[in-house]
């Protein structure tokens, strides 16, 4: 198939550090190319891909001093629109931005929704565009919008050899990975580690929007002797970081749509201890790949039990459920159905 992947421009594809959506777009794009499809990636010019790259801007917007991030995305959407006839299907990763420009174009398209959907301002958007096809990244994510035209749920996946267990690492600490913000609750991770009597390593990005929260809430806690703030780490650093952890702490305080860091830990054979919010119960296999908890006390108890879990089994469960090729095959099935429906509609019209 001739497939267009349309990524956000905030980060390169793949991002050099943090960037969940762009990372998944990269994994999906490369897996589709490996499956033999003709793929064009619309992304920032500093992206790296084996697909054909069409740049929407020279560098990731994160690296540019711009005040209006919507303007480059409008240019990107017009680029896609002008080339749309060259593809069998268009796959967007830009939330609802493509809806009004592509719903009546006649080219099959689908949007994967990567973010939170429980915001009240989204209701009128999906009431208006209730026939636009969308894909969820967890069943929990889609619950606030039952009126949306859900084609299905497709979980994220990672390339098989991207993150692998580092068997020479002896697990000795707890890990927190991702981003510092109020809903991710790094403060809760610090408390869990303290009560469990274990060191905690925090490898996390601090966005400009979260700097005040970091300075006022998290930074004062970093002086505790059991806490080490590593900062943002690259993909290449993750296997050692996660393999050296007794468990990944995922003490979220919001309805997480997916939680890529959970399957990153599983890829390294590391147990996940996660609060029961959002997608957690769909991603973590209780008592196999980790433990699902409701409060700090139960998280501490889960830490004490984490050594009972088999790290080889965790890795095997990751391969069975969250490998990138499996993700790509599920998307291809949706693309094929969309293209088939478009052909059928065209035949009926003629």
From TrEMBL:
Q: Which UniProt keywords apply?
A: Transferase
Q: Which InterPro entries match?
A: Glyco_trans_1, Glyco_trans_4-like_N
Ranges for domain Glycosyltransferase subfamily 4-like N-terminal come to: 18-122
GO terms for MF: glycosyltransferase activity
Is the Mitochondrion keyword given for this protein?
no
Ribonucleoprotein among keywords: no
Domain Glycosyl transferase family, which positions? 170-302
Q: Which CDD domains match?
A: GT4_AviGT4-like
> Under what name is this protein listed?
Glycosyltransferase
* UniProt lineage: Bacteria, Pseudomonadati, Pseudomonadota, Betaproteobacteria, Burkholderiales
């Amino acid at each position: 198939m001739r497939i267009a992947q349309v990524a956000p421009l905030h980060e390169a594809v793949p991002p050099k550090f943090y960037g969940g959506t762009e990372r998944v777009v990269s994994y999906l794009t490369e897996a589709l190319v490996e499956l033999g499809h003709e793929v064009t990636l619309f992304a920032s010019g500093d992206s790296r891909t084996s697909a054909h790259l069409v740049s929407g801007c020279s560098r990731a917007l994160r690296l540019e001093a711009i005040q209006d991030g919507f303007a480059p995305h409008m240019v990107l959407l017009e680029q896609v629109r002008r080339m749309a006839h060259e593809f069998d299907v268009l796959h967007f990763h830009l939330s609802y931005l493509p809806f009004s420009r592509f719903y009546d174009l006649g080219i099959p398209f689908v949007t994967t929704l990567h973010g939170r959907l429980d915001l009240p301002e989204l209701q009128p958007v999906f009431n208006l565009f209730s026939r636009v096809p969308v894909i969820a990244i967890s069943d929990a994510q889609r619950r606030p919008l039952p009126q949306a035209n859900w084609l299905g749920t497709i979980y994220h996946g990672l390339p098989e050899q991207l993150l692998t267990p580092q068997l020479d690492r002896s697990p000795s600490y707890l890990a927190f990975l991702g981003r510092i913000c109020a809903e991710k609750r790094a403060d809760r991770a610090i408390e869990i580690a303290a009560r469990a009597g274990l060191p905690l390593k925090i490898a996390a990005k601090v966005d400009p929007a979260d700097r005040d929260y970091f300075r006022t809430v998290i930074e004062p806690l970093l002086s505790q002797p059991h806490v080490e703030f590593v900062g943002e780490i690259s993909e290449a650093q993750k296997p050692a970081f996660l393999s050296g952890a007794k468990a990944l702490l995922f003490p979220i305080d919001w309805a997480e749509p997916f939680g890529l860091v959970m399957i990153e830990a599983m890829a390294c054979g590391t147990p996940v201890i996660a609060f029961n919010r959002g997608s957690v119960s769909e991603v973590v296999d209780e008592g196999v790949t980790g433990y699902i908890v409701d409060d700090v006390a139960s998280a501490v108890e889960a830490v004490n039990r984490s050594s009972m879990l088999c790290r080889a089994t965790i890795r095997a469960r990751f391969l069975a459920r969250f490998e990138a090729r499996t993700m790509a095959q599920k998307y291809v099935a949706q693309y094929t159905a969309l293209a088939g429906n478009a052909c059928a509609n065209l035949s009926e019209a003629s």
